[in-house]
Amino acid sequence: MRAVLIIAAFLLLFTSSIGAKAAEADPYQERMKLYKKVETITQIPWYYLAAVDQYERNVRLSRRDLPKPESLIGIYFRPEQWAGLTNPNPSEENPAIIQFFNGVGVDGDGDGNASLKNDEDVLYSFAHYLLSYGVDEDNIKIGLWDYYHRDRTVGSIVSYAKIYRHFGRLNLDSNVFPVPLRSNHSYRSTWGDARGWGGRRIHEGTDIFAGYGVPVRATGYGIVEMKGWNKFGGWRIGIRDINNTYHYFAHLSGFAKDLQVGQIVKPGMVIGGVGSSGYGPPGTSGKFPPHLHYGMYKDNGITEWSFDPYPYLAKWKRIERMNVRKK
Ligand SMILES: [Zn+2]
User: Fold this and answer.
1) 306 alpha carbon to ligand 1 midpoint, in Å?
2) 205 C-alpha to center of ligand 1: Å?
3) Under CATH, which number does the domain 185-326 receive?
4) What whole-number distance in Å separates Cα of residue 152 and Cα of residue 157?
5) How would residue 197 be classed by pLDDT, with cut points 50, 70 and 90?
6) How far is the CA of 220 from the centre of ligand 1 (A)?
7) Fewer C-beta within 10 Å: the chain N or C terminus?
8) Angle between helical axes of 2-22 and 46-62 (0-180°, round to 10)
């Protein structure tokens, strides 16, 4: 089991490095142009289009049974879904024939073809599908549910739309270390250890030891998905980011004032304090030294699994330190 998880973590690192390379061309502006253009035509808000696109891109980056995203738009249609299941030609690009076979492919850029290789056609085709439900949040949600048949997926896409709408931009990729760099803290790689505090079957996270009450910060852009007590994790917070990653903060001394489920956070925002809560009924504390248990979980559209936060923590710390020096 452990070997499988280690391989999965390795693959994840590998695929995310490919993603980083693809992003070097700074595609955010080009993507935004396409979202806004399709919004103008369909009245579907750009942030829903951005959310679906981002979700699908994430899924493709974390799955081996799907082709990696190669162009600006990450939405994936199977050829037979595009051309129509009963269409004898799965690479059909004639919009009228595709329509006849009930395929999803539509001509978005007006060049006469509905092409899977054309970003605008692909984005417009998804918008065209949603448009058959409506352009308000409730109807978009129904459309998403009929398309994906999965609560986690619909929840993530709706959350991403809220995040994009809130910030009004697509570039939301920066991260920080979960406790202030200047605080006294220590951590080492313990992911996968048989014993730990706040883990499940194995230790699903990294323990960052620090003084009681040291501020705990959101590590990236995201939305608070969970806040509350759990027998093992104590007071804890779960934050979902736009990369299909769930960040889990446990054993907190308490929560930041006014922090709510559904609240949008950005890197560095204080969400709670380091504590030693857990291992008993609500309020139990002090059964182990104060530390932050930090876990990361990846959703690939089918299942969600834990991976080792340690390399990310080390990277974020390094980058944050560099940025502090620059200032
Ligand atoms: Zn832990």
Assistant:
1) 12
2) 5
3) 2.70.70.10
4) 9
5) low
6) 20
7) C
8) 130
